[in-house]
Amino acid sequence: MSSSSNSSSRRNLSDSLAIVKSSFDPQRDFRDSMVEMIVENNIKASKDLEDLLACYLSLNSDEYHDLIIKVFKQIWFDLTHIQLK
């Protein structure tokens, strides 16, 4: 990813809107939301993924932080395996 793409991803991420949502399956909803953000913002660099995680942690209450980190780790693992193929 070029530096201009990195700047573009960060700008798009910061321009995104947070949506308040009630959920019966927060793990699935966080995963769907994170994957959507990664795809929509063409996030590929580790730094951009870390920024995305920081956004989710800052926008959600502490009670969801462990779940958000768990979902994030799974997505990172999945992305790593996709890139290795």
TrEMBL record:
GO cellular component, one term: nucleus
Record Pfam families: Ovate (PF04844)
Segments forming domain OVATE: 19-78
Keyword Transcription in record: yes
Keywords: Nucleus, Repressor, Transcription, Transcription regulation
GO BP of this protein: negative regulation of DNA-templated transcription
Localization of this protein: Nucleus
Coiled coil: none
InterPro entries the record matches: Ovate (IPR038933), Ovate_C (IPR006458)
Main localization of the protein described in the UniProt heading: nucleus
Record-linked NCBIfam families: A_thal_3678
Function comment: Transcriptional repressor that regulates multiple aspects of plant growth and development.
Identification of the protein by name: Transcription repressor
